[in-house]
Amino acid sequence: MAMTSLVLALASVAELLAGGECRPPKDAPEAKLLAFFAAPIAFSPAGHADRMAPWSFRVSLDVTYVPTPPADIRRSSYCHRKSENTDLSPVFPRPRLAVGLPGGLYLEGSYLPPVTVLDATPSLGSVALGWSRTIRGQPREGSTWITLRAHATFGEVSGPITCSADALQTSSANQPCYGTTPSNDRYEPNMVGGEGIVGWSGSGRLSAYVGSGYTSITPRFQVHFTPQGGTLDDTRVLLDDSRISAFAGGRFQLTGRSAITAELYSVPKDMTTLRVGGSWMLRTAP
Questions:
Q1: pLDDT 10s digits, 6-37
Q2: Dihedral sign from CA coordinates of 113, 193, 13, 230
Q3: pLDDT by residue (tens digit) across 93-114?
Q4: Per the CB 3.0–4.6 Å rule, which of 120, 133, 166, 221 could disulfide with 237?
């Protein structure tokens, strides 16, 4: 599962800590690694950013490419000194449901339920509120529009993240994961942001947009591991930071109800990724 692999990489910044809190500087590899993995799970438009008719409903699924972090942030230097496990799944999937509201508003949400896969249990949600207005033309005849959008991602992923069963060892108390019982850790992404978007819809099947945004990222990682013959390690790794993003995307309408979507999403300070997906209108405007 992509979520499991993503959290395994994020969690590695907490290994070997003895307890308490570690708040790495923003230029430390640990902080950069946490910020790097915020981009793939940021709740961007992912192909849909224009107006929805009141009380229309849309379901969609998008898949985000997760690149490998650069080598210079894969080795910790502040909380501890070691190479990190960053063998990620190459994709991150996300289901979505959106509803059009009166006044040019629309509400969008996503949720990954608490289904345990590979010993990790996600309960991760995202929500967005958008407002769109046509500034030239007509929606069904070709138009230019603007959208303002606020979004948030919250929840947690729990399980034996720092020390899974296959990482446990009993040969040296001075090495990580010394013990026989896997850890029971928790990761909280905590992201809130806003975006401004300009888009174009033609009289045919294609629509496109460009935009930029600001996101506050405050991830928290809670270690919960008791080494053999030792005391509980309940270290928390904290990061308070922010990022500017830029993106461009759109959709191609296959039928009156179905479409394929794509978006190029970039956080210049960290990474650039691609989201692709598809959508289906459950209920269209009268």
A1: 544 544 444 444 457 888 888 888 888 888 88
A2: negative
A3: 899 999 999 999 999 999 988 8
A4: 221
Query: Which domains occur in the chain, in start order?
Result: 2-283 (2.40.128)
pLDDT confidence tier of residue 75, bands split at 50, 70 and 90: low
Apex 181 CA angle, 161 and 174, nearest 5: 85
Q: How many CA atoms lie within 13 A of 93 on its CB side?
A: 9
Number of helices (H), then strands (E), in the chain: 3, 16
Phi, psi of 73 (to 5 degrees): -110, 5
Task: Report how far residue 76's alpha carbon sits from residue 71's, in angstroms, rounded to the nearest whole number.
Answer: 11
For 175-202, the pLDDT digits (tens) are 878 889 888 888 888 999 999 999 998 7
Q: Which letter does DSSP use for residue 204 in this model? A: S
The encoded tokens of residue 128 equal 């967005």
DSSP 174: T
- Which amino acid appears at position 113 of this protein? P
